[in-house]
Amino acid sequence: MTRKKIVCMSAGLILGLVLFAAASAMKSMRTQDEWDGGPYKLEEVNALDARFARPYDKALDDLGTGMVLAANAIACCAVAMISFYKTKEKKKAFGTLLLDAMTYLACGLYSCGVYKILKNLAGRLRPYMYFPNPSIKGVAEGDFCRSWPSGHSSFAFMAFAFMVCWFAARYPRSGLRKPALCFFLLAGLCTMALRMLSGNHFLTDVLSGAALGFLVSALVFRVSNAILGRNQS
Length: 233
Hints:
Blueprint lengths: L2 H27 L17 H6 L5 H29 L3 H33 L13 H5 L10 H20 L6 H21 L5 H26 L5
Helix pairs in contact: 1-4, 3-4, 3-6, 3-7, 4-6, 4-8, 6-7, 6-8, 7-8
C-alpha cells in the first residue's frame, strides 16, 4: 500500500475521531435536562409509536446492550478468522486484516458521531417517561430525553452493513456469506426489539437508527475501498 493511501485512510480516521469528539462535547456542554416529576401524556405521541411504547425494564435494557456488543465482537472475530483461513500467505492476511480493522473503526466512529449529534439536537423523550417508574439512571443523567435515534440499533446495523460489504468485496462466493449475514441481521432485529421492549425507544427511533447505521457504514466502507483501490463485487 502506498504512502498516499495510508495518509488518506489515516485522515479519514482522524475526521471520524473529530466527529465523535464533537458529538461527545455537545452532550457534555449541553445543559442537563431535569424532570420535574410530572406525568407525560402518551396521547401526545403519534399513534404508531404510542402503540409499541413500553415501561422501563432494566433486564431487557442490559440484554439489548449485551446483544449489540456481542454482535460487534463476533463481527470482528469472524473477519479475522475468515481472513486467515482463506489466505495462504499469513503475512498478507495480516496486512489485509489491519486495513479492514481501520475501516471497521471508521464505520463505528462515523456512525456513532452522527447518531450522537442527532440525539443531542432532537431531545426526544424516551417511552419509559410516559409510564410510572422510569429509569432512575436515565433521569439522573439527563438521558431520558435522548430517544431519537436509537444508538444501539445504529451500532448493530453498522456491523451488519460492514459484513454485507465485506463479504461482497472479499469473499462473494463464500459458503459462509449467507448464514453469517442472516446471523447479523437477526442480531440487529433482536436489538431493535429489545430496545423497544425495554422502554428505551419508540418504533421510529429503532427504524431510523438502523437505517442510519447501515447507510453510514456502507458509505464509509465504499469510500475506504475506493481509497485503497480494491474492487467491490
